[in-house]
Description:
448 residues, mainly alpha, two-stranded antiparallel ribbon, 2 strands, globular, hydrolase, dGTP_triphosphohydrolase_C, HD_domain, dGTPase, Deoxyguanosinetriphosphate triphosphohydrolase
Amino acid sequence: MNWKQLISAKRWGYEHRETHDHLDARSEFQRDYDRLIFSSPFRRLQNKTQVFPLPGAVFVHNRLTHSLEVASVGRSLGRLFYTLMKKENPNIDEEVPYLQEVGNIVSAACLSHDLGNPAFGHSGEAAISSFFIEGKGMQYKDRVSASQWADLTHFEGNANALRILTHPFNGKDDKGFALTYSTLASIVKYPCEAKDGHVKGKLHRKKYGFFESEKESFARIADELGLLRDPENPNGYLRHPLVYLVEAADDICYNIIDLEDAHHLKILSYEEVEDLLMPLCGDEKLRTRLDSLHDKASRVELLRAKAINTLINGCAEVFIRHQEEILQGKFHRSLMDALDADIVNHMKTISKISVAKIYNAPAVVQIEIAGYKVMNSLLEEFIPAYLKQDKTVFDKKLVAMIPEQFHTSNEDTYSKIRAVLDFVSGMTDVYAVDLYRKIKGIEIATLS
């Protein structure tokens, strides 16, 4: 793979349109970022769970604030990579015209990396998958292909993000978000389909990156950008190099910022957070600065900022150092896993404590269980109603509740199920609970 081909301003749905000239206020990749910022799916992230329940007396991160922070870190990683490349080769801009845009590409991809995640975090994904694995959705197995069934039994937010960005939803722009090819490729961490994913020891196949419905779309993107075919999986590809930066930005944020939220919620003491973050800060004068701050929340914020800065610099250096391996598809670790051994071991300690004290905290577990029940119940109601040929009056009323944009003219079972999943997976936590209450008769809707 080569950077000149990998970084393309070609835009999905407008492949034959000329790019804007240099006098325009925004580059093509800044346009990607802006389109995402102003979009409805992005705004809905403000009411989707990141880790802790929403809303609460103490403000914690939701999917939207997390995505904004990941985009900020991603931009720094991209800019640092370009700066180091420019330092090594002052003429790099002539050889790779869009290389200076890497920061904008990565930040746009970061902004959309969680766009396909359903309500209630990973619990929502699990609920959708289990509906088909062991719930009432099992009845549809013989009505779809093996690859389609793999999609349904392993619902994946990463693949759903690509669908949201490229699928021609009913009544909407048939070109989707019309993002650039490079931004689209940079969000696909696992460039294979469901039946080829979930392979242990294979980073690019840890999960999967596109549904069968978007298989041809991703192939178009991959071929245009010159992504390498996976030698062990002819139906899949190796990662676009910028995926490593997007992944690193996400890893940095959730590993560090979950500690900050845990402190706000009094799950972790200040002393515990300091012990976890101080080894990552690398600032000899930091103790003096911390002692000058009497507010513990401010101390945590300072530790968080220093730790993130250390990890950004480390990941950028790893990316530069292993650049040739990455371009050849021979680098099979995340950037975080390739950092200095002491940092890697310390991050494992943070992960272990996060699992034990944060992700299994009673409030977190409760929202996961409640979310699981809500999502499963919604699927039990909407999927049979939408698929029935002879609909009852109640079925028709349920179908009428699905917004027109999610309806499909296709008659096959997979397309119809996918249409309902588009509707349900796009819900916010608040909307899903509200709809669940109304459908179950727990709360009666009133006219306003």
